[in-house]
Amino acid sequence: MPRTWFYDSKTIRNRRGGSITLALVLAFSLSAFAGTPDWLRQAAKVQVATSSDDVAVVLFDEQITTVTSDGEIRSTYRKAYRILRPQGRDLGVVAVNFDSDTQLSFLKGWSITPDNGEYEVKEKDAVETSFSADALYDDKRRKILRIPGADPGSVIGYEYQQKERSSVLQLMWPFQDEIPVARARFELQLPGNWGYSAFWLHHAVVQPRTLGQTHWEWELSS
Questions:
Q1: What percent of the chain has pLDDT above 70?
Q2: CATH number belonging to the domain at 31-221, selected among 2.30.29.170, 3.50.50.60, 1.10.10.10, 2.60.40.3140
Q3: pTM of the prediction?
């Protein structure tokens, strides 16, 4: 499975991710069969060829970004993994950064275990920490959510949404990292008088599919 990077520089800036603090002992409540979304159920059915070195595989990676007419940027992120080996358990810890300019609207996580058990955790189950040691002068924060059942054979997924206003209207979207990605999708919707410019690095140019007058999607699969 190829490991490539896809960068698409558009009219939005992305602030996703951040390092995961694995040393924290997080508390969470389990809700069995508590609303596993259809997109995660569909991703769990995907079969992907992997190598003996892969600790996990990304079954689905989606970002949906909408810009409103007043300039607010809303991005929803969804990601689903299949854990292949014990080293992949770390992927069950999700860290999302936010600050006064980037609000976190919601954060949820789910798991589907090999014996068909299903669990859900929500934002109230997350631990909030400061992003840096200098918390007195820095308003950057982080919410860390531990998804239960992140064991070999399980499928785990998470979803969160951020809202922001920014003077730097640019997005960099990585299609793939160390972990193989089976399917990646990006959707962009702009106001009627907006446009975008796309630039690709280390990947052939892929033209978007038009969903509407100012509404497009890009999709890549292995």
A1: 78
A2: 2.60.40.3140
A3: 0.81
